C-alpha cells in the first residue's frame, strides 16, 4: 500500500473533519471550552465505558497497555528533562518542553485515527492508552506544569474529578459482577458514545484556530522531534517488552507517535509555563504529524 493511499484512507478524513471545527471557530467564534467540556466529560466516558463493557477486555490486557503507556511517556519526559538541563534552559521553558513531549494527543487525534486505521479492536486498545494518559495528565502532568509546587493532594483531587476514570471503574465492576445497565440506559450510552469521535475532531480544529508559531527554534525542534519521532521509537522498543502483540502492538506504537495533546495548552496557561510556546508546539506537531504518521502506518501495517 502506497504512502499516499495510507494517508488518504487513514489520516485525510480526520484532517478534513478537524477543518470543519477550524471553520466554525473562525466564523462563529463559539465557546470552545464549553463544547470541549461536554465532549471530555460526557461523550468520552460513555465511549470508554461502552468499549470496556462490550469488548470483554481481560485485566492482563489493561495492565500491559497501562504499563507500556506509563513507562513510554515517562521515559520521553526524562529524555526531555536531560536535554533541557544540558542546554541550560529556564525552568518554565524546561517544564513546557517536558509537557509537550510527555503528553500525546491520545484523545482527539489518537482514538479517531486508531479507529479508522485498525477498526473497533484498535479503538478498544486506544481507549486503554487514553485511560492511562488521563491518569498521567492529572498527576505527573500537573506536577510538571506547576514546576514541583503542586501538592500530591491537588493532583489526586484533579484525578478524582475526571469522569473517564469513574467510567473505567464502573465498567470493570459491572463486568466482574456479570451485570449490565438496563436497555434504555445502554441505548443512551451508545448514542452519546457515537458522538465522541466526531466531537473530538471538531474540537481539535476549533482549538487550533488562532494559534501561531512562537518561541525559540531549538526547543521547538527538540519538543517536536521527541514527540513525533521519539514517541514512535520508544513505542517500537517498549511494546514487545510489555507483551503487546497484534493490534495492541500497532495501536500502542501508533498512539505513542501522536502530536502533542491540546490539553498541554490548558496546563501551561493555568501554571504560566510558556503557554505561547506550548501552543506553538501543538500546532507544529499537528501540522507535521501526517508526514510522520503516514510512514509509521506503513511500517505497522506492513
From TrEMBL:
Its main location: membrane. Keywords: Cell membrane, Membrane, Signal, Transmembrane, Transmembrane helix, Transport. GO terms for cellular component: membrane. It is found in: Membrane. The chain crosses the membrane at residues 35-53, 65-84, 96-119, 126-147, 159-179, 191-211, 217-239, 277-300. InterPro entries: Mem_transp_PIN-like. It is a multi-pass membrane protein. The keyword Cell inner membrane does not apply. Pfam families: Mem_trans. GO terms for biological process: transmembrane transport. Residues 1-25 form the signal peptide. This is AEC family transporter. The keyword Transferase does not apply. It comes from the Bacteria.
